[in-house]
Each structure stands twice: as structure tokens, then as C-alpha cells.
Amino acid sequence: MSEIIKTENAAKPLGAYPHARRVGDLLFLSGIGPRNAKDNSIPGLEIDADGNILKYDIEAECHAVFANVKSVLEASGSSWNKIVDVTVFLTDMKNDFPVYNKIYGDYFKDVEACRTTVEVKSLPTPIAIELKVIATI
């Protein structure tokens, strides 16, 4: 059994992929960032006329990305406490990891999902964090 999941309650995918795909009792979320579902804005982001990042707020982005993940989970018939694995992509490990790690701990203290955090040079939009999640249904 396989099912494609799309929702209006999370940021729209930037390409030809769904928010999630259910296969049996497993749910695989596509990478998702902190973009707002309603207007595609990125909380705390300031960019110049050329699209260069002037300032961003990793705390605001963390809360927004977790909200997007929660929306996709719920649209899929799953929930936050059913997350089993999280891959986190940060664009600035040195400066952002301490803030992200504290906020992550608040959200995931009772979940105990496996986690991998990696630094990447950039992400497809001017975001500082993206999550890739696997959950159960």
C-alpha cells in the first residue's frame, strides 16, 4: 500500500514531489523548511535586492519548520509522537546548532526519535534549516 500526501497547511513543495508518502505503516516526509504555508515567507528573514541574506532568525525558523512538519504529520494521519527518525540540515552549524539543539530538545524530549544533523552549504531557498522525517502511522 502506498499513498501520496499533500496539504495546504504546510509550505508548498518547490518541485515535483509530495509532502509525504505513506508506505505500509511508515510515513516518509519530503524535506521541509520553515516557509509559511499562506504566503511563502520565511520568518525573521531579511534579504537584499539581489536575494542575499542580510539577517535571519534561527529560533523563528526552528519553530516554523517544526510547525510545518506537524501539519504534514497530521494531514497524513500520524502525529508528532510517532516520529522515529529525523535528519536535520543546517546552513551554519557553528552558530546555529546551540539554538537549534535547545529548541529541538524542547519539542522532542518525549519523542526520542533518532537524529542526524548535518551542515550544508545552502538550501534551495534562503532558509537556514530543513528537516527530513520518517514516522509511523
**Low-pLDDT windows of residues:** none
Amount of helix: 10-25%
CATH architecture: 2-Layer Sandwich
Secondary-structure content class: alpha+beta
Beta-strand content estimate:
25-35%
Observed structural traits:
single chain; 137 residues; alpha+beta; 60s Ribosomal Protein L30, Chain: A; six-stranded mixed sheet; two-stranded antiparallel ribbon; 8 strands; 25% helix; 28% strand; globular
What does this structure look like?
- This protein has 2 helices and 8 strands.
- 25% of the residues lie in helices and 28% in strands.
- A 6-stranded mixed beta sheet has the order 1-2-3-8-6-7.
- The longest helix has 18 residues, at 58-75.
- The model has no long low-confidence stretch (mean pLDDT 96).
- The chain has one domain: 60s Ribosomal Protein L30, Chain: A (2-Layer Sandwich), CATH 3.30.1330.40.
- By secondary structure, it is α+β, with helices and mostly antiparallel strands.
- The protein has helices spanning 58-75, 93-108, and strands at 2-5, 20-23, 26-29, 46-47, 53-55, 83-90, 114-119, 129-136.
- It is globular.
- Helix 2 links the parallel strand 6 (83-90) and strand 7 (114-119).
- Helix 1 crosses helix 2.
Write the layout of secondary structure elements.
Elements: E1 2-5, E2 20-23, E3 26-29, E4 46-47, E5 53-55, H1 58-75, E6 83-90, H2 93-108, E7 114-119, E8 129-136
Parallel strand pairs: 6-7
Antiparallel strand pairs: 1-2, 2-3, 3-8, 4-5, 6-8
Helix pairs in contact: 1-2
